[in-house]
Amino acid sequence: MSQRAAPQRSVAGAVDGRRPGYEYQRVWLPHDLDREGARVTLAIHASYGEWELMRSRVYPDGRRWVELRRRSRPGLPPYLPT
């Protein structure tokens, strides 16, 4: 099983062009994770972390880069382990 990096999380600001009032999280999914595994991982983030898919990219080597967003609300956990 490959090592996964912790997701990067940020709050939107005027400088990066993202919508204010949203938090963003970038998640890298390894190449050895199949499509169903990626779907389940993202479904867990959506169900329990209230994240929604903003954009995704699949690289030629099979890695997936996913950016999620949710409305900023205090009290929600910063991220779910992937």
What do these coordinates show?
The chain has 82 residues and is α+β, with helices and mostly antiparallel strands. It has one domain (8-71). The protein is built from 1 helix and 4 strands. The chain has one helix spanning 35-49; strands spanning 8-11, 22-29, 52-58, 64-71. The model has no long low-confidence stretch (mean pLDDT 78).
**Count of separate DSSP helical elements:** 1
Q: How far do the termini sit from each other? A: 13 Å
Placed side by side, the strands forming the largest sheet appear as: 1-2-4-3
Largest beta sheet, briefly?
4 strands, antiparallel
The protein's oligomeric status is single chain
Beta-strand share of residues: 25-35%
Q: Structural class, judged by helices and strands?
A: alpha+beta
Uncertain residue segments: none
Radius of gyration: 13 Å
Overall 3D shape: globular
Question: Can you give me a brief rundown of this structure?
Answer:
By secondary structure, this protein is an alpha+beta fold. The chain has one domain (8-71). It contains one helix and four strands.
Key traits:
82 residues, alpha+beta, 1 helix, 4 strands, 18% helix
What is this structure's SSE topology?
Elements (H helix, E strand, L loop, with lengths): L7 E4 L10 E8 L5 H15 L2 E7 L5 E8 L11
Antiparallel strand pairs: 1-2, 2-4, 3-4
